Amino acid sequence: MNSGFCMKKIFIKALFITLLSLTFVTACKFEDEGNTISAPSVDNTSTPSGGISIARERLNSSTDSVLVYRLNVSDTPNVEVHIGTLYPKNISENLLIFNDQMVYASKTYKYRYVYIDSDKKRYSTEWSTALKVIDGKKTDESLVYTIPDETYFDLSPEDYTLKLMEADKIDFNPSQETWLDNYKPAVILKTAYNQLSFGLAERVFSGNDPLELKSILPADYYDTKIYCGGIVGRYQDVNKNNQIERIYWTEPSAIKVLKSGIDVTKTGFTLDSVSADSGIIY
Fold first, then answer.
1. Among 82, 124, 158, 277, which residue has the least CB neighbours within 10 Å?
2. pTM for this prediction
3. DSSP labels, 65-124
């Protein structure tokens, strides 16, 4: 498929797929799960904020979420980054579109989707063709949090809380463009098999209250190594028909974790087994 597709083709395709969905049943698959899944299409978006539009059909009726990954092929090394998640809420929402505005003008990017079924099976697409951004952000604009060395999470081994120290020194996009105002800070916590994010309420982000890990982490986070994947800006968008929810992320900014004064950012830390509530899928 060509790297550039026009919005006219998207809407024609969406109409065709919507008509198909009238005969769509739960067991029906758009793709053979045993075959390689084709890449999403990419195009320079015409929205006021610019960026790149990524689109691909829903994989099957049991698609629970779709993770969106980006690869910056202009820079070395090429680092794969999880930039958002799609949650199809209606079975008729078959064309899954994600608009990536966190890109720089004249840079070139690739994208892929990872489909997660309700039974947690994962299906990854190939990478899209490389697309150079026409209308993106200026290279001198910060699209991530700026976290100085003196800012870190203090992990309490007594009650398993993370307290954000020197939080007032964190900065995010000094130019404060209007479209970024809706992004709220969140922290990524991950294990070898899972990765979740948790919103940092104002009092947590200001360093006044700690993040209570035992009240937010799911059961599979206990008795295994936990790592902090950094701090991101998170924006949640639900379309007007409530058919699909989109979660947008900035790229993560690394932050240290100290336990009793010892840096455990790379080695990770462990929590004792207890029951816990789930977090937000990242």
1. 158
2. 0.73
3. EEEEEEEESSSSS--EEEEEEEEE-STT--EEEEEE---BTT-EEEEEEEEEETT--EEE
